[in-house]
């Protein structure tokens, strides 16, 4: 069977969808948005080069250089995991009054030791891109009592020294400070926005700008502070959008963010132990578990007071009430160096996992030098970098902890990992990107996976192609159900038409006789009058009383008004089965009843109709007289029996009706019988009488019968 033209349209649509499904990844890749200076693939993580300098008045810490403003001014800063802003030291912080002895004129001059010691300063008036915002509090570390004010604005910020600059962004938030609570500035890797006013939109962070400009694959970072005491000095490591596998020893523990937005990178401290050359397994945590916030803005480790006292007992530390520091004199310093204790912090996450990770810090990580004006010191002194915390909000792991720990934070997935730093000398760098969940499937972009990731265009193409595939499958299923239903309807219609055609070809069955609606012939169906199957016969006399039939009587079959002779035929007529019905009543005054033959003719005309063309030639041409005579009145009845019957009435009832008092000669309910032996019986005379004899009856209510038959 040939396919109809209308059936080709769904097939054409399916072909178009299939072609578009295979070509959609190419189209999506071609139409994917691109920046002029960027590839269509995912950007690589940014590995920020550390300085060769070690700065600070609370220890010696590796720094990272930034260039701020236009023209660029280069400053050295620390890394802050808690801040979302860039802080630089204002040039006024290192300006001193100097009086000329000859002219006695006082002028502001730069204090070179301060300028170099604070990582160089920034003069916002010399920057052509500076946009002033105003003076605001330095909110970060306010919970530790480190507060102050800063002058904020927007300016251009980038990484690196001249000739090795990294990505540079404009209109980033910059805070300038003078207070000595923060001796150097810092670069914040937290992606939170800065709110200067409730009437202004928040200012995005530097990390957010990097991701929006397609400069990093995700909002994430990895950081370790470096250790000057390792080998000849191991520099710090900062990776934006990924991590360096050569800098840590892997473990399987992943921490989730804490619900507090100000303290999100929180770990649980399960245990603190120490071991030295003279002692082993010293328990330094004589209290229940607690949590600590990892914050590289500060240098020290802030612990509960009772834990600090266990450190005092274990290592002979002395707390200085004036500076709130554990100052170490020369004797204690030599003793601790000789014992060289290792302090192990066991970290976990309560209610989440029973797994723990141990971070081991040697005594060299705690052997720091404090310089004036830190904490009001007048002279440089060694100190043990632990601090007494007043409450849980001050429990902090500072840069001291991150000398031996490697921190990887995924801000978008809200999880992080803490690893023990690896000290393999001169290990080659191995940077692994962390792909943003907004760019790829979560299952294929695990933050610690080293698998190669697809490009942005390929990801968009796969997503678009998958969408077209799903749409095509849904359309195909819907079309299949629609087609099945359409075929079923067409098949049913075809079978119905075939059955009707077959029925039209076959001989129609005998129709059920129904009363005619109209005696007029239907030209499409032919005549409905069945010819009477009768044969001509001689006229015979009927032994009935004759009455004159008036000419023109409609009931008469003779045109002259005389009854036609009866024509008897053999039983050759086709039998007509019909329901018994009443003989129609003549609608005329004083009419006679129809005979049985006339009643049959009337019924035939009612059921078969009247042939307007006249009777067929096979029908008899002679007309027979009516078989039922005119009604006879009682006065015309004559007595024909041999005896008289007085008091005869055709309507006089006779009781009982059940025939209990029937007389012997009453033949109304008795069968006829023939005379025996040629004798005449009086009772048999009733056969010739239409009136039953009532002689001998004494019943006053006797019934008298009358018969016309």
TrEMBL record:
Residues 62-419 form the Peptidase A1 domain. Residues 698-709 have a biased composition (Basic and acidic residues). It holds the Pfam family Asp. Residues 1-28 form the signal peptide. One of its GO terms (molecular function) is aspartic-type endopeptidase activity. PANTHER family: BETA-SITE APP-CLEAVING ENZYME, ISOFORM A-RELATED. This is Acid protease. It comes from Zopfia rhizophila CBS 207.26.
């Amino acid at each position: 069977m040939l396919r109809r033209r209308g059936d080709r349209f769904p097939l054409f649509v399916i072909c178009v969808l299939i072609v578009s499904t295979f070509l959609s990844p190419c189209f999506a890749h071609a139409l994917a948005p691109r920046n002029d200076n960027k590839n269509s693939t995912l950007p690589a993580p940014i590995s920020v080069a550390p300085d060769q300098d070690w700065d600070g008045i609370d220890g010696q810490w590796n720094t990272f250089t930034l260039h701020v403003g236009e023209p660029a001014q280069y400053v050295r800063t620390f890394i802050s995991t808690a801040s979302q802003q860039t802080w630089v030291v204002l040039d006024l912080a290192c300006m001193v009054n100097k009086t000329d002895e000859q002219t006695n004129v006082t002028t502001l001059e730069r204090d070179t030791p301060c300028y170099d010691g604070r990582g160089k300063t920034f003069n916002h008036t010399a920057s052509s891109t500076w946009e002033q915002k105003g003076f605001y509090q330095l909110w970060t570390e306010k919970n530790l009592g480190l507060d102050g004010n800063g002058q904020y604005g927007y300016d251009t910020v980038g990484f690196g020294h001249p000739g090795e600059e990294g990505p540079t962004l404009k209109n980033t938030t910059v805070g300038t400070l003078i207070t000595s609570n923060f001796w150097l500035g810092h670069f914040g890797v937290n992606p939170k926005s800065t709110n200067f006013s409730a009437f202004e939109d928040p200012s995005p962070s530097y990390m957010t700008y990097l991701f929006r400009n397609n400069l990093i694959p995700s909002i994430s970072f990895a950081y370790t502070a470096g250790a000057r005491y390792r080998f000849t000095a191991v520099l710090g490591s900062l990776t934006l959008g990924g991590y360096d596998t050569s800098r840590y020893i892997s473990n399987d523990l992943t921490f989730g963010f804490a619900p507090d937005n100000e303290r999100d990178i929180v770990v649980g401290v399960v245990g603190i132990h120490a071991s030295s050359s003279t002692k082993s397994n010293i328990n330094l945590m004589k209290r229940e578990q607690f949590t600590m916030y990892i914050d590289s803005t500060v240098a020290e480790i802030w612990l509960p007071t009772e834990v600090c006292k266990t450190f005092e007992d274990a290592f002979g530390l002395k707390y200085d009430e004036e500076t709130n520091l554990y100052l170490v004199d020369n004797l204690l310093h030599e003793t601790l160096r000789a014992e060289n204790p290792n302090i192990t912090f066991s970290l976990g996450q309560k209610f989440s996992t029973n797994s723990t990770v141990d971070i081991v810090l040697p005594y060299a990580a705690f052997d720091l030098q404090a310089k004036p004006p830190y904490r009001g010191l007048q002279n440089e002194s060694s100190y043990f970098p632990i601090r007494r915390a007043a409450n849980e909000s001050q429990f902090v792991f500072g840069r001291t902890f991150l000398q031996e720990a490697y921190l990887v934070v995924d801000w978008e997935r809200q999880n992080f990992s803490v690893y023990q730093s690896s000290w393999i000398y001169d290990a080659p760098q191995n940077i692994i990107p962390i792909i943003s969940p907004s760019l790829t499937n979560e299952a294929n972009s695990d933050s610690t996976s080293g698998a190669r990731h697809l490009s942005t265009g390929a990801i968009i193409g796969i997503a678009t192609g998958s969408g077209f595939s799903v749409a095509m499958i849904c359309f195909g299923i819907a079309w299949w159900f629609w087609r099945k239903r359409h075929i079923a309807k067409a098949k049913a219609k075809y079978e119905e038409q075939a059955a009707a055609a077959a029925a039209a070809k076959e001989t129609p069955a005998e129709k059920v006789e129904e009363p005619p609606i109209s005696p007029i012939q239907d030209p499409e169906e032919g005549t409905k009058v069945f010819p009477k199957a009768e044969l001509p016969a001689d006229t015979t006399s009927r032994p009935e009383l004759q009455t004159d039939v008036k000419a023109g009587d409609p009931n008469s079959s003779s045109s002259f008004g005389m009854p036609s002779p009866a024509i008897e035929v053999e039983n050759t007529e086709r039998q007509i089965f019909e329901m018994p019905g009443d003989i129609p009543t003549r609608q005329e005054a004083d009419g006679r009843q129809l005979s049985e033959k006339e009643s049959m003719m009337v019924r035939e005309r009612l059921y078969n109709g009247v042939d307007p063309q006249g009777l067929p030639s096979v029908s008899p041409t002679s007309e027979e007289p009516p078989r039922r005579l005119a009604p006879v009145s009682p006065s015309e009845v004559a007595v024909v029996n041999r005896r008289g019957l007085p008091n005869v009435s055709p309507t006089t009832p006779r009781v009982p009706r059940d025939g209990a008092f029937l007389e012997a000669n009453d033949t109304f309910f008795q069968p006829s019988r023939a005379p025996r032996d040629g004798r005449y019986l009086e009772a048999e005379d009733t056969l010739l009488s239409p009136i039953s004899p009532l002689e001998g009856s004494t019943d006053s209510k006797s019934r008298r019968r009358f018969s016309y038959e």
